[in-house]
Amino acid sequence: MDTPPPAAVAVEPPPVVCAKCGGTPIETGHVAPLCIACRDTLVRRPLPLWLRILTVCTLLLVIGSTIAGIEPFRAAINLKRGERAEQRQDYATAYAAYQKVPAKYADSTRVLIRLAYAAYHTGHDADLRRILRALEGRSASKAEIADVNHLLDQIRLRGR
User: Looking at the domain assignment, is residue 99 inside a domain?
Assistant: First the structure.
């Protein structure tokens, strides 16, 4: 059973006129049959106005969000530095790191508790009293309440 030979495929000759303007001669070596003048016009075509406006708006949004995101990012870094220093029992470094948490986040119960611990261990009694007054009457998680109670027990034991 012999298979028949494949049928001959008719190959169309490439067009000899420009697809845009109909002029001749076309520039060879490219997929689109265009003359040199039309190809240069299409290559140098300016970006549409709507695309330029969209690009500028996108850049402004990226710049704005970057600027707005710096403060929370720095606060998170300082909070983490303080927690690591506290784990190493380097309370002076922890106190300094917690002090750098921006005022916008300094009212956070978590930050105040960590700052109170650092203030207690570094001897900043005035700050400790101010922080404990700020913590009064706040709602907190059980873990945070346990942390504050532990700190208060330590203060009572040392008689501060």
Answer: yes
The DSSP string of 78-109 is: HHHHHHHHHHTT-HHHHHHHHHTS-TTTTT-H
The residue among 113, 105, 118 whose CA lies nearest residue 145 is: 113
CA distance 154 to 158: 6
Whether 15 and 55 map to the same domain: the answer is no
Residue 66 CA to residue 72 CA, distance in Å, equals 11
Read off the DSSP letter of residue 14.
Answer: P
Q: What is the pLDDT of residues 120-137, one digit of tens each?
A: 888 888 888 888 888 888
Q: Can you read off the two tokens belonging to residue 150?
A: 């532990």
Contact 46, 36 (CB under 8 A): no
The residue behind tokens 């119960």 is 109
Q: Structure pTM?
A: 0.56
Instruction: Print the domain residue range for 40.
Output: 10-45
